Amino acid sequence: MRALSCGRRVLAALSTVALLSSCALGATGQEQAGAPRPVGPVTMVVPFAAGGGSDISGRAVADGLAAARPGLRVDVDNREGGQGAVGYSYLLSKAGSPNYLLATETSLLSLPLSVEVAFSHRSFTPVMKLGEDYTLLVALPGSPITSCADAVAQSRHRRVLAGISGAVGPDAVVFSELQRRSGADFDTVPYEGGGETMAAVLGGQVELASLNPSEVMGQLRAGELKALCVFAEQRYDYPQLAHVPTSLEQGIPVSFAQFRGVIAPGGLSPQATTYWIDAARSFAGSPAYRDYIASEFLQPRMAFGEEFAAYLAEAETTLAQVVRR
């Protein structure tokens, strides 16, 4: 698996350019620095392209927060590029402003561990961990690959292209672990988001794809794709996915869940931090949150504020053992 170790200089350059550009655009956010609560429209930054899991998450949370706080307006702004570095760098430039949020996931941890960027999870204010999301390995129905174990076996003898979202994101971690633990040798092709990865496997540009259930459920139901396994320790309880075997069942000792959450810029006032955590708790207790979790087939493992920060620190330590190999 080559994608995890290649292209680091390119990603570093992208993130540096993004930071310089976003600093030039950051005046509006800086005007609100130190404010006790947002004033006017709020921007939910999605650091990946439209159509993927991060985009779905950002839009669901934006709507849920607006519903939980009457009068609040939250607009979604997709700022993809640099495998997420562009969006995170943009949020970095809004330090102190309560008018910005970001739909985050595991790239918040894997990017700083893999490439030279100007941020880490400590650069931002943790608001809410929404839940955990396991990835599926999928292929076209007519593919000769019939399981995850079969995919690993075939990758040792022929070239197998696998699409992933981001060169250093959760999918890359899964394939890195496949190589380390099972001797697989996939050629991974990184895309900017789940939507592009989906298009690649449906169009035959890659033979396999690593996608979250929410990204691929429509295609599974329509018979356009088949699920080979889920990289989890236990099968999903959701009826639509209960038939999908785990990687462990197939003798592949790889299990990895990415988190989904919401962060705000660093340097928020205590009042603004409390405002967003309270709003997130209101969202978490609403039917909108339960509908989001169910529709995206997530595990509803929540954390708020300092508890979310502690989770990030622990997950960073675990992830470093994989990403920095």
From TrEMBL:
It comes from the Bacteria. The keyword Signal applies. The keyword Signal applies. Keywords: Signal. Residues 1-26 form the signal peptide. Belongs to the UPF0065 (bug) family. This is Tricarboxylic transport membrane protein. It comes from Saccharopolyspora antimicrobica.
